From TrEMBL:
InterPro entries: Acyl_Trfase/lysoPLipase, PNPLA_dom. Gene3D superfamilies: Cytosolic phospholipase A2 catalytic domain. This is Patatin-like phospholipase family protein. The keyword Lipid metabolism applies. Residues 12-210 form the PNPLA domain. It holds the Pfam family Patatin. SUPFAM superfamilies: FabD/lysophospholipase-like. One of its GO terms (biological process) is lipid metabolic process. Keywords: Lipid metabolism. The keyword Calcium does not apply. It comes from Cellulomonas rhizosphaerae.
Length: 296
């Protein structure tokens, strides 16, 4: 792909960060739209984990203002709420994944170990896949791939190989989002004979999937932080350097304090969503003038 091609200009990269990250990104997109910057018109949208849900939501034809309004109208659940998987706390997931990372020599081994551990948790009836698909389907305004190009990252649990799902993959949009958001702690996500886990195990933001696009805007709820050794090249800074070396102009947006101190183990907590969305909305409005010239 040639970045000088005028037909291929803008890519939006949406990283993962649980319930809070989804809300912040939706708020940011809505705030920018309210100030005249339409990110939904991107030529390519890249989604990872919670960012995959956002990618499907903002390309559905639903107005960003309506997506944002739905989040801020959510009533925070009373008392402790289960994450996915129901029996696991966010901290236990973090401990599990940290242990796997620490025991791996490189990113490829880490992905294989994550996949093997997830496969051990699968059940013969594959009930986890059925439940998670229903949950994801309920979050998406429409279930067919949009006309514009959307790429969603995942990992093959059996081989540890990275997987990129798009409209030409022969996979339903709901299944693609569900695979990209499946953290592996409760098992894998099944699509036919394939078993997939979270796209964040491929790379943290997967911004490299926008290689060749002239302008790349990256939303990183975890502010570019990584739990992987820098030598693995999973981190956002490495991805941005690669994009710029290929001729892309890159802008990155991190959450500001208005979203709350939630981009940590609390990111999976659904009660964080209204504040994270409001923070993203206000930040989007504040950044609109700066990003308007970049986005065009």
């Amino acid at each position: 792909m040639n970045v000088s091609d005028p037909r291929i200009t803008r890519a939006l990269v949406l990283a993962g960060a649980g319930a809070a990250g989804n809300a912040w990104e939706l708020g940011l997109v809505a705030g920018l739209a309210a100030a005249g910057v339409d990110l939904t018109a991107a030529d390519l949208v890249v989604g990872t984990s919670a960012g995959s849900t956002v990618a499907a939501q903002i390309t559905s034809g639903t107005r960003p203002a309506d997506l944002y309004a739905a989040v801020v109208a959510e009533t925070p659940p009373a008392g402790p709420q289960p994450t996915r998987p129901p029996q696991a706390s966010a901290q236990s997931f973090m401990d599990w994944s940290d242990t796997t990372i620490a025991s791996s020599a490189d990113a490829a081994e880490m992905r294989r170990r994550m996949g093997a551990a997830a496969l051990e948790k699968d059940t013969p009836d594959d009930a986890g896949t059925t439940r998670w698909r229903a949950t994801v389907a309920a979050r998406l305004p429409r279930h067919d791939w949009p006309a514009q190009l959307v790429r969603l990252a995942a990992v093959d649990a059996r081989t540890g190989e990275p997987v990129v799902l798009d409209r030409d993959s022969g996979v339903d949009l709901v299944d693609a989002v569900a695979a990209s958001t499946s953290n592996g702690f409760a098992g894998t996500y099944g699509i036919g004979g394939q078993r997939l886990i979270n796209g964040g195990y491929r790379r943290n933001e997967n911004a490299d999937l926008a290689a060749g696009y002239a302008r790349v805007l990256v939303m990183s709820p975890f502010s570019g932080r990584t739990r992987h050794p820098l030598a693995w090249g999973m981190d956002l800074a490495t991805q941005v350097d690669e994009l710029r070396a290929g001729g892309s102009t890159v802008e990155v947006v991190f959450p500001d304090a208005s979203a709350g101190d939630v981009f940590n183990a609390r990111a999976m907590d659904p009660s964080t969503r209204p504040q994270a969305a409001r923070g993203g909305y206000d930040q989007g409005r504040a950044l609109a003038q700066q990003l308007a010239a970049f986005w065009g």
